[in-house]
Structures are given as structure tokens and as C-alpha cells.
Design brief:
- The complex is a heterodimer of chains A (158) and B (275).
- By secondary structure, chain A is α+β, with helices and mostly antiparallel strands.
- Chain A has two domains: 75 residues, Roll (Ubiquitin-like (UB roll)), CATH 3.10.20.30; 72 residues, [2Fe-2S]-binding domain (DNA polymerase, domain 1).
- By secondary structure, chain B is an alpha+beta fold.
- Chain B contains eleven helices and 14 strands.
- Chain B has a five-stranded antiparallel sheet.
- The chains are: A alpha+beta (158), B alpha+beta (275).
- Chains A and B meet through β4, α3 and α4 of A and α2 and α6 of B.
């Protein structure tokens, strides 16, 4: 067991975790942030993408103990008060989801790519989505949503 | 999927990491974890202890030295992709890093982790062998030609840690790969470099271990252009054959990717992947 301290969605948390506990299970089962999903569990699908110190990572592919000292943001942490994050709003506006299972990971990846200025055209957006699977939409509306969000948000203010 | 239990250790220095390794039974080093953790989840690797190297500042530097770029083993793929020094000196290497896995994987995976693992389909071994890089470890200085010894095998000894990799700046270089559409690993990837010591062509994904093809190097030494390779056919003997591609198809792809890599080198850019 290891004691971990980290900031999750702006609040400090401390807990004793099994070394083998994956970060995604810590977020979902210990902290009950169940918006982060487990899709493939083999590092491919991206449903579990969160931000670790501001960068998109797959929370099924790191241990909770490795995140000691880090700042973690999950899908629950992106809206301000009761206002949707601009990327969430764009997904709603463009109907960029059907079943919604992949959406939390898609949005975390989209925010990250806009911050990195890698959402400049549709081809780039599709390439940046390589690590996120959607089995419903064919990606079309997701690309629309990210394109719109990128047009409306400055990369340093998202 | 949940791995077996293990002890977790996060040393503050390379020296501490080595001391831990000698004192613990059945320990493994953990770098970015983008291969080791999935393998542990499948319970194909079950180390009793993990020694986490990912926060060692000693391993995280990028430096431009005369005629070479020195990259710390702990440098993440996205940092290689974005580094202005690397883009200026060896653009093909920066572009190669930008084709590994996906953005989330590139935020965690490291150069040293990829090399120590030596996956037959990994991208970095092609750049290291193609550029004739030098691997500096805690114990040794190892030339690329001596480093990759077989499938998932390297010249690293028990407890030895890669510290830096020194990539000599080539005159020209290019990388082209045909990625597996799901994993983005190379079904075949070819790194071509025109260096001060001659032309080097390194192939990943095609065989159990990255290798150089001297026929192609000879052909390109005469004329460094794609058409020099049109008649160079690699034998399919000993190449990988699996559900993704037969050995014959891989042999064919080596020539196609090598020609694209030469084109990329001449254009001053790497044709990264099939879009």
C-alpha cells in the first residue's frame, strides 16, 4: 500500500491505495468520479482519458501511486459552476454523441488538442483522435464539434 | 484487468534506483509504462517490484551538442516531437516521435522505455539504428549496431539503466511507416539516413528485431533517390508473418516504405503515415 496525495478537480485528496490500483479505478471507485469510463481496458479506446498536470493521458495505463503529487482533472471538473465547458457545449450543439460512452474521453482529448493548437483543420482533428474510439457516430459530428470549439476558444483560455 | 501485487518504489536518483534494484528480488524499472503496464494487466509480466524512473530529472534533458542531439532516456515522445532543437537538427526524428501510438500515449511513453523494451514493431529502434546513435547507460556506451540483439532483447545487462541517447545529425533523413491501423505500431517502418559515415537504412516491424539492409544502403550510396531502390527486393525469409501481414507482403512493403522515406529525406520532411 502507498499513501497518495493529489489534487482532483481542484480539491486535495489523500488516500492509501494498493500499488496495483490503476488511476482509473481510484477515480471511479474510491473517489466516485464515475464520469471517467473504462472501455477497452487495453489502452486503446480512450474512454478513460483524463488530464494529468494538464496533459491528456489514459488513466487505465497508469497506477494511482504514480499520480502522487499530481493535479488531475476529470470530465466532472471541466464545467464552471453550472455552465458547460465550451467543448461540452459544442458537443451538445453538434449532437456529437449517440450512446455517450466515449464522450468523457473525447471531450478531455478535445480540450487537450485545442490547448496544443492541434485542432486547426479537420484532418488534424481526425489524426489527433487516433486514441479515442467511438462506435456510434462515425466521428463526423465529433469533428464538427471540436472544429467549432477550436474556432471559438483561444487555446490558452480553454 | 488488474495486475498481480507488486512493491512500488520511486527513487530520487539513478544511484538510488540501482541500489534498490540490487537489494530487491525480481524488480523491474518502470519508465512511461505504456507497454509495461498493459503487459502487467494481462499478467504476462509479474514483477515483484517496480522501480519508477519516470520522475528522475537526470534522465529528462534534451541538449544540442556539436553535431549531435543528446536526449535523456526519460524524455517523453511528445517532447521529442515538439522540441525546437530536435526539429531543427533531425526533423525526421521529431516526426517519427509524433507517429508513436496516440497523443495520450505520447504524453507518457519515453525514449528509454521504448529502447529497453525493443518491441519488434516499435518506431524508435529504427531511428536509433538508422542514425547510428549511441546509447549511454549506467555501465556502458553502446553503439546502436550492438544494442538491438533480438526480439525484445538488447545488450542491456540486469540492472543497467539507459541514461541518454546521442543522435548524430545526419545530412538528410526520413522515416516512413505503414502503421497497424488499430495500434499504430509499424507493420513496416523504414528509417533512411544519409550520414557523414555513409547511408544507413533501418527496418522495423518486418522481422523479429530491427535490422539494417545493406543492399539498400549500397544502392542509395550510388544515388540517393527513390528509384535507386526500385529493383532492390528484400527476401521474405525470416520476416514476420501474422494476421496483419504475410512475410511476402512485409518484404514488399519494405521497398515501398524505403522509397517513401528517401522521398521524405529529399523533401526535408518525413512522410509520416498513410492518412
Amino acid at each position: 500500500m502507498t499513501v497518495v496525495n493529489m489534487t482532483v478537480n481542484g480539491s486535495p485528496v489523500a488516500a492509501e491505495v494498493e500499488n496495483r490500483m490503476l488511476l482509473v479505478y481510484f477515480l471511479r471507485e474510491t473517489l466516485r468520479f464515475t464520469g471517467t469510463h473504462i472501455g477497452c481496458d487495453t489502452s486503446q479506446c480512450g474512454a478513460c482519458v483524463i488530464h494529468l498536470d494538464g496533459r491528456a493521458v489514459k488513466s487505465c495505463t497508469m497506477f494511482a501511486c504514480q499520480a502522487d503529487g499530481a493535479s488531475v482533472t476529470t470530465i466532472e471538473g471541466v464545467a464552471q459552476d453550472r455552465t458547460l465547458h465550451p467543448v461540452q457545449e459544442a458537443f451538445r450543439e453538434h449532437h456529437a454523441l449517440q450512446c455517450g460512452f466515449c464522450t468523457p474521453g473525447m471531450i478531455m482529448t478535445a480540450i487537450d488538442m485545442i490547448r496544443r493548437k492541434k485542432a486547426q483543420d479537420r484532418k488534424m482533428i481526425r489524426r489527433e483522435l487516433e486514441g479515442n474510439f467511438c462506435r456510434c457516430t462515425g466521428y463526423h459530428n465529433i469533428v464538427d464539434a471540436i472544429e467549432t470549439a477550436a474556432e471559438h476558444c483561444a487555446s490558452d483560455r480553454i | 484487468m488488474i495486475p498481480y501485487q507488486f512493491g512500488y518504489h520511486r527513487p530520487g536518483s539513478i544511484a538510488q534506483a540501482q541500489a534498490l534494484f540490487s537489494s530487491l528480488h525480481d524488480a523491474r524499472f518502470l519508465a512511461g509504462g505504456q507497454t509495461l503496464i498493459p503487459v502487467m494487466k494481462q499478467r504476462l509480466a509479474n514483477p515483484a517490484h517496480l522501480i519508477d524512473l519516470s520522475r528522475l530529472e537526470e534522465l529528462s534533458l534534451v541538449a544540442a551538442e556539436d553535431g549531435a542531439i543528446v536526449i535523456g532516456a526519460g524524455v517523453r515522445h511528445f517532447q521529442v516531437e515538439d522540441s525546437p532543437d530536435i526539429r531543427r537538427t533531425i526533423q525526421a526524428l521529431a516526426r517519427l516521435a509524433g507517429t508513436i501510438g496516440d497523443p495520450a500515449v505520447r504524453h507518457l511513453g519515453t525514449l528509454g522505455g521504448s529502447l529497453a523494451n525493443n518491441d519488434p514493431a516499435a518506431d524508435y529502434p529504427a531511428a536509433v539504428l538508422g542514425l547510428g546513435a549511441t546509447i549511454v547507460t549506467t555501465n556502458n556506451v553502446i553503439a546502436a549496431d550492438k544494442f538491438f540483439s533480438g526480439m525484445f532483447q538488447t545488450a542491456l545487462q540486469e540492472g543497467e539503466i539507459i541514461k541518454t541517447v546521442s543522435f548524430p545529425a545526419p545530412l538528410r533523413a526520413g522515416y516512413a511507416k505503414f502503421p497497424n491501423p488499430a495500434s499504430r505500431y509499424a507493420i513496416v517502418g523504414v528509417f533512411v539516413a544519409q550520414t557523414h559515415a555513409g547511408v544507413r537504412v533501418a527496418v522495423t516491424g518486418a522481422a523479429p528485431c530491427v535490422f539494417r539492409t545493406t543492399e539498400m544502403e549500397r544502392a542509395l550510396s550510388i544515388r540517393f533517390e527513390p528509384d535507386s531502390l526500385s529493383d532492390v527486393r528484400l527476401s521474405s525469409d525470416g520476416l514476420n508473418s501474422d494476421l496483419h501481414a504475410s512475410a511476402e507482403y512485409r518484404a514488399h512493403l519494405v521497398t515501398v516504405m524505403a522509397k517513401r522515406a528517401v522521398t521524405a529525406a529529399l523533401d526535408g520532411q518525413s512522410s509520416p503515415i498513410r492518412e
